[in-house]
Design brief:
It is globular and about 60 Å long. Among the domains are: 63 residues; 53 residues; 118 residues, Alpha-Beta Barrel (ADP-ribosylation fold), CATH 3.20.170. Helices cover 24% and strands 29% of the residues.
């Protein structure tokens, strides 16, 4: 019997996919942390959640995550892109002299948007110059659609962006004119039927209509880390089952589409950063619209209590990691208002010394796991205001 493993973060998307899995007779497991329990080790479960979560749990579960590589979009024939797109590095992008839409190709570590030139990119020295990025000419997307695809067949499709705003109606539906849906599906099916276009066995294909140019590919995303919008959760589940493959059965054909997982340094315990002269450690936390409103209401002094389904509070150790989560998760989470805020604050080292610093993925994915019942004590240990240092919107994923 198949098993679905989902992230600890409770969202409408994970709930919808869990309901679909139950209806299909699957076993299901919502983890309480990003550590895979011993009884699930090498279980070869299907994974769904934020991309960072999937990366961390894939190896312990014994699965490979299939996706399109970061240079897939610029390799497409020009007729499917309808704009110039190049795959390069952050170091090269910083030298780019013209206005361009620039986005991280993979790590979601800085805002994806139109920059006046490469000199306007964030100057964070912690970002390595070899980070892959995509540079494209600026265009205006009139509407964008998400397609869940398996074996070149569209299993589910939904609009998600229209005229600069989320395409969801007040009643929660995702309406679209029938002729527009037909045009979107015709374009997507034409691309998927083209033998000159290599595609993963299962993935998410985002397409849209560019003002003055017509239908084009926005980007490709991993099915196991993508929001579902108005797509049928049962069909999303079918896509996930093909996009997450047991390593013991991985074919050579599938292997070319396998995501390279970060090196997990679980056997090398990280240590708390050296406190400043005041005995304080700087921490970061990505939050959504609801949590940020609560922080503002507190006078920028406290994080709100955890919800019943949120047993752990996760502050992180560096801005790069916080921005990744804000971009990869909060901007795709309806409960977060499709927006991600990155906060920075200082906490007394004497308080943090009672907790073990965790590594959730790559070496820089460092975070504290603070039990929900300790949030008041955590807030009391904050010195100074909780600052807002970056904001990310779901619209920034386009090109």
């Amino acid at each position: 019997m198949p098993m679905l493993v989902v992230t600890p973060r409770v969202t409408p998307d994970t709930e919808a996919v869990l309901v679909a899995a139950h209806a299909a007779g699957w076993e299901t497991q919502r983890l309480t942390t990003w550590r895979v329990p011993a009884e699930l080790s090498q279980r070869s479960a299907v994974v769904y959640g934020e991309p960072l979560f999937a990366e961390v749990v894939a190896d312990p579960l014994g699965v490979a995550l299939l996706e399109a590589p970061s240079d897939w979009l610029p390799r497409l024939p020009a007729r499917y892109r309808q704009r110039v797109v190049q795959h390069t590095t952050l170091g090269f992008a910083r030298q780019y002299a013209e206005e361009a839409f620039i986005k991280p190709a993979d790590e979601k570590c800085f805002p994806a948007k139109v920059y006046t030139s490469g000199a306007a990119l964030p100057g964070d020295v912690a970002l390595p110059p070899d980070i892959p990025v995509l540079i494209s000419e600026p265009v205006i997307w009139e509407v964008e659609y998400r397609c869940f695809v398996a074996e070149r067949q569209i299993l589910a499709c939904s609009p998600y962006w229209r005229d600069g705003a989320l395409a969801q109606a007040a009643d929660g539906s995702w309406p679209a004119p029938p002729d527009e849906v037909d045009a979107a599906l015709t374009f997507a099916r034409t691309l998927l039927a083209d033998p000159a276009v290599a595609v993963p066995p299962a993935f998410v294909l985002d397409i849209g209509r560019i003002l003055g140019r017509g239908w084009a590919v926005v980007e490709a995303n991993s099915a196991w880390g993508a929001g579902i919008y108005g797509c049928d959760p049962a069909q999303v589940l079918r896509t996930l089952q093909r996009a997450v493959v047991a390593r013991t059965t991985l074919s050579s054909t599938d292997a070319r589409w396998t995501r390279t997982l970060p090196e997990i340094e679980a056997d090398v315990p990280p240590t708390m950063p050296e406190p400043d002269e005041g005995g304080l450690v700087t921490l970061y936390r990505p939050v959504g619209a609801y949590e940020w409103a609560k922080i503002v209401a507190s006078g920028y002094s406290a994080f709100p209590p955890r919800l019943p389904e949120q047993p752990i509070f996760y502050p992180v150790l560096n801005e790069r990691y916080a921005c990744e989560i804000a971009r990869a998760w909060n901007t795709r989470d309806a409960a977060s208002g499709e927006i991600g805020y990155v906060t920075r604050f200082r906490v007394r080292a004497t308080f943090l010394s009672a907790y073990v610093l965790q590594v959730a993925g790559a070496a820089y994915h460092q975070e504290y796991w603070i039990p929900a019942e300790d949030i008041d004590a955590f807030n009391a240990a904050i010195v100074g205001p909780i600052e807002l240092i970056a904001t990310y919107h779901s619209a920034e994923d386009g090109g």
